[in-house]
Amino acid sequence: MRTGGLLQIFKDFSNWSTVAVVPHIANATHKISRAFWIIVFLFVLGMFIYELYIVISKFFSYPATVNTEIFFEKLAFPVVSICNMNPYKYSKVQSTSAFSNFNSLMTAYKNAMAGSYSGDSYGFSETSGQSYDLDARAYDAQILEAYQISDAQKEPALYTFADLVQDCTFAGSPCSSSDFTRYIDPVYGACYSFNSDKSLNFSVSRQGIQFGLKMVITVGQTLVNNNNDFLPTTKQAGARVGILARGVLPGLDNNGIDVGVGSDTAISISYTQNIRAKKPYGKCVDREPTSTDYYQNYTYTLETCFEGCKQRDTVKHCSCANPRFALGASDTACQPNKNDLDCLQTLKGNQTNSADPNIDLLTECSCNPPCNEDTYSTTVSFAKFPATKYYVAVSDDSTIGSCTTSSKFSSQTACQNWYSSNGLILQVFFATLSYEVYTETSGYTIGNIINDLGGQAGLWLGLSVISCVEMTGLLLVMCGFAAKGGKVKINPDDDDFEGDHRIKDVEDVKKELDHMEKNHKDMGMDSDLDDEIENDKKIR
């Protein structure tokens, strides 16, 4: 390969190239001038390479942006789930044979609270002097004991819809038990969800408390004969309420709202929709990233992922599953004995020792947010119920009845006092019909990187599309030169001149003119002819 050919290629390219500085380097007449332009070229080339690195790094970091849109339109009403904080009627627990072991637990708990641990098979004695730990252990034991009883055997002790809901209206129109779906919660017993059935289509086109769901709920802390019907382990009198999108796990044990008796609780809600980007621009997923999906029948949420992670951790450490969460097909539930209760207690961490913390869901669980999520933000306000002079009025079909017509109480005042200790009003409504949609999208696309690269190339090197075409042409010429092994001729040589017929024709003309000049001299031609011959020579 001839280096002279390469130099000629580069020299020709530098003469007509539009790339900044290159023509200055090629056409410099002094070494100092050429060295200066070379330094300038190296500087701008270095700056371009630096900016190129920044642009490429930014692209491969896959940044995301969130676009916010606000809409105002008719809204579907959420699913409203209610549960009695007392899961089972104590009177039925004491009189139903299926609850014999459960009743023994209640007796052992009452004894432990009194300082006696006789008949203790649950490890209550280990919590002596720590009432919080005693309550927590008793609560866990209660869930384990309840799991040993089938749902059919639990029926007598469960609260019916009529026990809980004395009156129900939606946007001023009556609602009934057919608008609710019952499910058995491992913590709260029988719960009822409004608008969870897909065949229902409750929605609102007006905001405000008058256009929402209103219920008069009774929890039965005491019977109408004033006998207490709450379990000894139940600490609060009221309802547990959850407000979620349809298809989402209720999860009231973690995400519910406590609504106490003797109150009118108004819950205003606002709707938000989140649409998240998938990898590489986001971390959202459609399902739990594990083969053991305990909640595959529910819409995926962070809550279902965390619950499944906690259950796997329980099975790993205790060789049994906690009935508080969903169980897999091959899982065996933990038994209501001291050993399993001790193991479940260790998973919660030591409440007095920070060196023994609870499971860290953020680091020990591979959970990412769902790609599409509907959420309802709540604002809760309270008022006393019933007022001093108000005699409760409910539907004529209710189990308890209104204080002005009910025959279950000795007087209207007695009825009012009973509702004050056992009843509450729950109202759920939209605070506004406007809602926000947050959409996460790629923040730096191919179009963005091309624009930035073009801007940096033009700023530092003066490159344009024409410059790129020129360099492509240079590359093709160099490839062709290399492929021919340097045999591509850049300038014609002596052989080319000798073989060119045009040059031969010129030589023949020259010889003919020389011959004519000689003849003229021999013949003594006049000076005009001599002048003509001289002109012809000049032309040659």
Provide keyphrases for this structure.
alpha+beta, 5 domains, 5-stranded antiparallel beta sheet, 15 strands, 40% helix
Named CATH architecture of the largest domain: Sandwich
Number of helices: 18
**Major sheet characteristics:** 8 strands, mixed
- Average pLDDT for all residues: 86
Pfam families: ASC
GO molecular function: ligand-gated sodium channel activity
Main location: membrane
Transmembrane segments: 35-56
Report on the structure:
This protein is α+β, with helices and mostly antiparallel strands. The protein has five domains: 19-61 and 445-463; 65-82 and 160-277 and 372-443, Sandwich (Acid-sensing ion channels like fold), CATH 2.60.470.10; 90-157, no CATH class; 285-370, Helix Hairpins (Orthogonal Bundle); 495-539, no CATH class. Helix content is 40%, strand content 18%. The protein has 18 helices and 15 strands. It has helices at residues 3-16, 22-27, 31-60, 90-95, 100-113, 131-147, 151-154, 161-164, 252-255, 302-318, 338-347, 361-364, 412-422, 446-461, 465-483, 494-499, 501-523, 527-539; strands spanning 64-72, 75-76, 79-84, 165-170, 173-174, 180-185, 189-194, 203-204, 213-218, 238-244, 257-260, 263-275, 372-384, 423-430, 434-442. Strands 1, 4, 5, 9, 12, 13, 14 and 15 form an eight-stranded mixed sheet that branches. The protein has a five-stranded antiparallel sheet with strand order 6-7-3-10-11, with no helix packed on it. A hairpin with a 2-residue loop joins strand 4 (165-170) and strand 5 (173-174). The longest helix is centred in the N-terminal third of the chain and has 30 residues, at 31-60. It is elongated and about 165 Å long. The relative contact order is 0.15. The mean pLDDT is 86. Residues 515-540 are annotated as: Disordered. Keywords: Glycoprotein, Ion channel, Ion transport, Membrane, Sodium, Sodium channel, Sodium transport, Transmembrane, Transmembrane helix, Transport. It is found in: Membrane.
